[in-house]
Amino acid sequence: MTKRLTATLRLRLWGASALAFGLLSGCSQFQPYQRADIALPSHWATAGAEATRTATEPSAAPLPWRGFVNHAPLQTLIEQALEHNLDARIAQRQMAQLQAQWQQRRAAQGPTLAAAADAQRAGGDGAMGNQYRAGLLVSSWEIDFFGRLQSLSEAARAQYLASAEAERWVRVSLVSGVVAAWLEVQSAHALLEVSQRTLANHEASLRLVQLRLQHGTASALQRQHSEALVQAARVAQARQQRQLQLALHQLQQLVGPLHDPAASTPAPLPNDTSSANGNQTLALLQPVAVGLPSEVLLQRPDVRAAENRLAAAQAQIGAARAAFFPRIALTAQLGSASTELAGLFASGSWGWTLAPQALLPLFDYGANRAGLAAAQAERDIALLQYEQAIQSAFKEVRDALASQSLMQTEYAAQQALWQAESQRAHLSARLLALGSASQLELLDAQRSAFAAEQQLVQLRFALLQNRVALYRATGGH
């Protein structure tokens, strides 16, 4: 009869414990993250038919940088930058740090088992005694009924994921920066070559004018005009030499420390303003196809990082709410105690203790309420930053698309202008030789051809720079 009552009582106790656990679990303040409802534009609203067509093409994934860059020496520089650049290395260390912190938070949800041993010697009234203890200890294990530890673990996980996306964004930005700096170097090389060639032509014209002036077939005004063109070409040459050095310094800084700085100094590209070679230069970078805004914006690493920071802030609210509820901790010990060291772990020396503890906040001068308010404010800030990241990404893509369409039209017109000015300069030289044109007409035609060629080179590299901007804006990797 007694055994039946004992069994019945045990079942009731287990049932009551299960019911209490279920009720307490239902009080958990942890709430899984749900994506914020932020309206995304349905189209890019770009200018030009080509940009509109490109903007409606679906894109499955961001363009990898190896598919974007079609130039082997530039790919080598990018690889070196990804390995040695300090920003990339810092981002990797930060990601590893936050991953370790997340693992710490996860480990805090389980009990910590430790081996404990101590010895005591006490005496009084002439009597002395020893006490030896050894065993296993679970110290202050917090049973997470209200989701505090789960919320903190989820917040740490979201922060780690945000750091992983931030590291991806650093890599995307680094690739874009290296390509942009490399293009600046190539643009400076090309413009310097144009300036040197133009200076040589103007110096030859000046010598011819001086010779004609000695024979009375040219005027002092023509000589001064030729001298002015020579000095203008020298100014342009010095400017491009300075720009080349600055661009090289920027590229070398992005690539990272190298034993041989010349290894990060790219060789100049062939500088031919013909249409065929211009197309070869533009083919160095693959055009970027752009999908719908909802596809592009939400896959950018910086936007995903902002969303993960929002998820972390949301999880912190759960932890702040759980602070209003009791914290239940459990301390347990299983071991052996004896007055003799040799008696440890002997039969009859074993024992155990179980000490649950509940800590209920009663009065804290409003600390918990302030903590909840701070967590909610942090969530609101993270939400606004997430929305801001989406808006910035949308603007960057839309600007790059609009520039792509309009710059292609401008480039075609500039190429036609340069061809016309070059033909005018050649024709003026022939007419001058026949005595049908003046020296001033030739000098003016040469000056216009020089300016048109400079602008054509600048536009060509600006088109490539715009592809870099579009690659980065779409979150390429």
UniProtKB/TrEMBL annotation:
Keyword list, A-Z: Lipoprotein, Membrane, Palmitate, Signal, Transmembrane, Transmembrane beta strand
Family to which this protein belongs: Belongs to the outer membrane factor (OMF) (TC 1.B.17) family.
Membrane-protein topology: Lipid-anchor
Gene Ontology MF term list: efflux transmembrane transporter activity
UniProt xrefs under NCBIfam families: outer_NodT (TIGR01845)
InterPro entries per the UniProt record, alphabetical: MdtP/NodT-like, OMP_efflux
Domain of life, per lineage: Bacteria
Source organism: Serpentinimonas maccroryi
Pfam families for this protein: OEP (PF02321)
SUPFAM superfamilies in alphabetical order: Outer membrane efflux proteins (OEP) (SSF56954)
Lineage: Bacteria, Pseudomonadati, Pseudomonadota, Betaproteobacteria, Burkholderiales
Signal sequence annotation: 1-20
Subcellular locations according to the entry: Cell membrane
Keyword Magnesium part of the UniProt annotation: no
GO CC terms, sorted: plasma membrane
The name this protein goes by in its record: Outer membrane protein
